[in-house]
Amino acid sequence: MEMLIFLIFAALALASAVVVVGHRSPVYSTMALVVTLFSMAVLFVVLGAPFIGVLQVLIYTGAIVVLFLFVIMLLNVGREEVQPSGQRAQAVMAILGAVVFGGLVMLAVSGVQAAAFPQLTPEMVSVKGLARELFRDYLLPFEIVGLLLLVAVIGATVAARKPPQVDVSSPDPKESEP
Amino acid sequence: MSVPISWYLLLAAVMFAIGTVGALTRRNGISIFLSIELMLNAANLTLIAYSRQLAVHTGQIVVLFVMAVAAAEAAVGLALFIAVFRQRHTIDLNRINLMRW
Amino acid sequence: MGAELVPTVLKLAVMLLFLLQVAPIMLWVERRGSALIQDRLGPNRVGPLGLFQGLADAVKFMFKEDVTPAAADKPLFLMAPVLALLPAFTTIVVIPFGPDFLYNGRTYPLVVAPVETGVLLYLAIASLSVYSLVLAGYASNNKFSLLGALRASAQLISYELAMAIAVLAVVVPVGSFYLGDVVQYQRENVWNALPQLLGFLVFVIAAFAETNRLPFDLPEAESELIAGFHTEYSAMRFAVFFMAEYTSMAALSALGVTLYLGGWSLPGVDLHGWLGAAVGLAVLLGKVALCMLFFVWVRWTFPRFRYDQLMRLGWKVLLPLAIFNLILVAVLTLAGVL
């Protein structure tokens, strides 16, 4: 049963990942990313991390990807035109590099012991256990991440703001400096 | 029959490779961002798989932090895209190349 | 897995049975209710009291011409209504509708999906409802639809935040995300609406914004954006959006009732077995019906929020109130009061 779920959602994740990377229209890429993230969330749940799986859907697909879509529509990003010059060579090199990387990882992974996963205990799956460890051993990183999010919000607000208008029609020369 | 960890690691590695190809070949800034999100997710899968293998919560906690950092990065990156778009009226990265040689 | 399959399917069948009736019933309620509020009669020709108006509307939708704009993005255009239905029908799987059921020596919780991350799962799937609006607006190749979609996405994710923090405040004294535990807590103490009045208000206002109901229905503003994001949708596709909106209203009412108004329980009533399940389901449906009436009532009473007023309310008023409520509840829980 676990094998079946893994196979279905792994195939789905890979197929939609290829669509994300390959499709010319950014809106389709974004929707394919939603499918990928959802499949990954299912795999997280299968791996005994239901809280992370649900958070993946809530945060990643529910907010981050919506932000992507919002910006795509705001900036009216169109389909990418196919450009012949230099694109083929770049693509071939990239794919070669990816294949080499994949091969290296397969080499590394084959050395991992093929022991089955330990049985899932309720303690491992529970949200309470995760919370206990998060707020006990990892309290400082948690607070720092909160600070990071605050800084990111301020930075994003400032970066996307319209530049302040310079009033050039003012008669007073002192006031026309930005 | 349960799934061995190497399968999850392999899936994560393949997805990472796909994301890398995307980040290197796309010209559209948003598409590059999407590929980066793919790579982050592949790393998340590896972390969760190992967290399960070693029966600890550490991997899940790190994934929480990775998600938060990804959100922060997406927000700031997209804000920067909007700012660049205002100046250049394009987000084709082949044209936003003022700092290239 | 096999032992859980039959009970789960039964529970799902029960819940879906009632959820599917929501759209036709609400159609009649909305039109007669709005007529009552506006001092007119409303539909009264089709059947007694106009009760078969829903049937007539359904037949009309089936026979209307299905127009797809020529320059529309076809796959996304066709996918958007379907995407609207998915979250609406999936989110009810975490709502409990009765006390734990004892059968053949095993206890079956009366929730379709008794997972530990109950209410979080609801919020996660409900957050996917943004996509249908956004895709509908984008794929229609229509300026007004696009504007409606942009407004909708910004509105939904803003109010989602306030709602999630209000929900968190309910979870803190209970100590669990599982909605069965939330109802049990309310049975042992008082309904959550009383000690968490502020959170309840925030949740109700955010619920109106989440379902795009007046006074927050700017994305589909009938007098400003033609019909907003579903301008280009006709016949059955429009009916699907319509159905999805009412169904998500019902699901969100069910969540609000479970979190704040005691869910399937009535104070003083303690039944079990088949009778307990039936009474619990009836009580839950009754409370949800009252909430839906409230939705209709508010719609025909208030004017619409302007977009900047809407965003200001979500970020500058509701979010600080929700956070204040959360801190208050956390302090009271630590002090042992809650």
Model description:
The complex is a heterotrimer of chains A (178), B (101) and C (338). Chain A has helices spanning 2-22, 26-46, 50-75, 87-110, 122-125, 127-137, 139-159. Chain A starts with a helix and ends in a 19-residue tail after the last helix. Chain A is mainly α. Chain A has seven helices and no strands. The mean pLDDT of chain A is 83. By secondary structure, chain B is mostly helical. With 338 residues, chain C is mostly helical. Chain C has eleven helices and two strands; from the N terminus they run αααββαααααααα. Chain C has helices at residues 2-37, 53-63, 74-90, 118-126, 130-139, 143-174, 179-188, 197-210, 235-260, 273-299, 307-334; strands at residues 101-103, 106-108. In chain C, helix 5 runs antiparallel to helix 6 and helix 6 packs antiparallel against helix 8 (197-210). The radius of gyration of chain C is 21 Å and the shape is globular. Chain C starts with a helix and ends with a helix. In chain C, 47% of the residues are buried. The mean pLDDT of chain C is 86. Chains in contact: A-B, A-C. At the A-B interface, helix 1, helix 2, helix 3, helix 4 and helix 6 of A face helix 1, helix 2 and helix 3 of B.
**Structural class category of chain A:** mainly alpha
**What structural class do you assign from the helix and strand content of chain B?**
mainly alpha
Mean pLDDT of chain B: 87
From the alpha-carbon coordinates, what is the Rg of chain A to the nearest angstrom?
A: 23 Å
| Overall pLDDT of chain A | 83
Return residue spans of chain A where pLDDT drops below 50 for at least 5 consecutive residues.
none
Note the overall shape of chain B: elongated
